[in-house]
Specification:
By secondary structure, this protein is of the alpha/beta class. It contains twelve helices and 13 strands. It has a five-stranded mixed beta sheet. A five-stranded mixed beta sheet has the order 11-10-9-12-13, with helices on both faces. It has a three-stranded antiparallel beta sheet with strand order 1-3-2. The longest helix is centred in the last third of the chain and has 25 residues. The N and C termini lie far apart (about 60 Å).
């Protein structure tokens, strides 16, 4: 029996590792000197300067004029800065009724946003066309061409495995094109990184939202239907086929019974109550009641709307409790377009949680609003760029 060969760290591998260390530091810092990079990475001075020279040549790093300190002895320090405009990434949220596109630089700063309705889409080609229209508009506003885009993170409302494959027998996505990623790549030329929308939501929340600094985190997208993104010890959970966080099990949970989200339940309950002409409520003056109007009526003291909110809180508390029992997160964030209004539910949800589990998670509402998935898609694309920086060819402008 022969043992597996041991592969020594080759110079190209060391170069990649060292470049990754330096880019990781520079991409989150401001201007840094060679000495600062040595201290931050533990690399030798010769290695830092050699790798920085490589990164400058590739366009990832800019060398600034050396700072001059008249009290210092010797040559002034070299100063380096990450080139956040070396390329750009896209964050695309493709929901059931709307697609939203963000264009961001390599520090994740949003430069442009565009949206399109998907409510009338019937065919896969129409869906791709609407997404492309939003992409073209966002790129034009940001004054960025396809050739400068290094990657696009794309969120879809379906299970997606670790390799970016959509689970084709999902009840929602099977009605649409499962080769959307290939279609977008063939049209625009940039890599498309498909991911489940709730998984991207938890990435976005961990990066820019309420979940910053919290590595055991769950995000509950709670609009039209419930879906969750799960993070354990800072690692995104997928499961064997991308099904981690899927919530079809709620059909088996007493007091829940389906995956319908807060917005849908609020709307359905209001519609059912209004069918009784004897019920007095300000909601009766609204031609077509929405969840936002139910929450607004409750805030004004409408008794019928307040009763709907109590029912929503009880139901949502059971959903949050199941996540608390199954994966034991420190924090559960309610996200999606309904998040801001759902803040009214928090006191009742937290009050009921302690009756379901001995280790209830904290509950908060997302501050990212309806951008939570597209922000996470930007983070997903940035992760790809950082991992493949030395393999990406930068297109220099002017």
């Amino acid at each position: 029996m022969t043992s597996a060969p041991v592969t020594a760290a080759t110079p190209p591998l060391l170069r990649r590792v060292n470049a990754g260390k330096l880019l990781g530091v520079l991409s989150t810092a401001g201007v840094m000197t060679g000495t600062g990079l040595i201290q931050a990475t533990g690399l030798t001075r010769a290695t830092v300067h050699a790798v920085c020279n490589d990164l400058i040549g590739m366009g990832w790093v800019i060398e600034l004029d050396p700072g001059r300190d008249d009290t210092a002895v010797g040559r002034p320090s070299r100063r380096f800065e990450f080139n956040s405009r070396a390329g750009y990434v896209l964050g695309i949220d493709i929901g059931a009724g709307r697609t939203t596109v963000l264009v961001a630089d390599l520090r994740g700063v949003t430069l442009a946003k565009a949206s399109r309705s998907l409510s009338a889409v019937k065919m896969p080609a129409e869906r791709t066309a609407q997404v492309t229209e939003a992409v073209v508009e966002a790129l034009a506003v940001a004054d960025v061409s396809d050739s400068h885009v290094l990657a696009a993170g794309v969120g879809v409302a379906a299970p997606v495995d670790r390799a970016g494959n959509i689970l084709v027998d999902d009840e929602f996505w099977r009605r649409f094109d499962t080769d959307l990623g290939q279609r977008l790549t063939s049209l625009h030329g940039w890599p498309v990184l498909l991911e489940n929308d709730a998984n991207l939501a938890v990435l976005g929340e961990h990066w820019r939202g309420q979940g910053q600094g919290i590595d055991d985190l769950a995000v509950l997208l709670a609009g039209e239907r419930f879906g969750s993104g799960l993070m354990d010890s800072g690692r995104l959970l997928h499961g064997s086929r991308g099904g981690a966080g899927e919530m079809l099990y709620l059909k088996l949970v007493e007091g829940v019974g389906d995956t319908h989200g807060i917005a849908r339940i609020a709307r359905d309950q209001a519609t059912a109550i209004l069918a009784d002409p004897a019920v007095s409520t300000c909601l009766r003056n609204i031609p077509e009641v929405t969840a936002e109007e139910v929450f607004a009526a409750a805030a004004s003291g409408d008794e019928v709307a307040l009763g709907i909110l109590q029912s929503l809180a009880a139901r949502t508390a059971r959903v949050v409790a199941t996540l608390g029992i199954l994966v034991n997160p420190e924090l559960v964030v309610l996200g999606g377009a309904v998040a801001e209004a759902a803040g009214q539910l928090l006191p009742d949800i937290e009050k009921q949680l302690s009756g379901y589990t001995s280790t209830p998670p904290r509950v908060a509402v997302s501050s990212l609003g309806d951008a939570i998935v597209s922000v996470g898609a930007v983070r997903h694309a940035l992760n790809y760029v950082e991992q493949h920086a030395l393999d990406l060819e930068l297109t220099r402008s002017g």
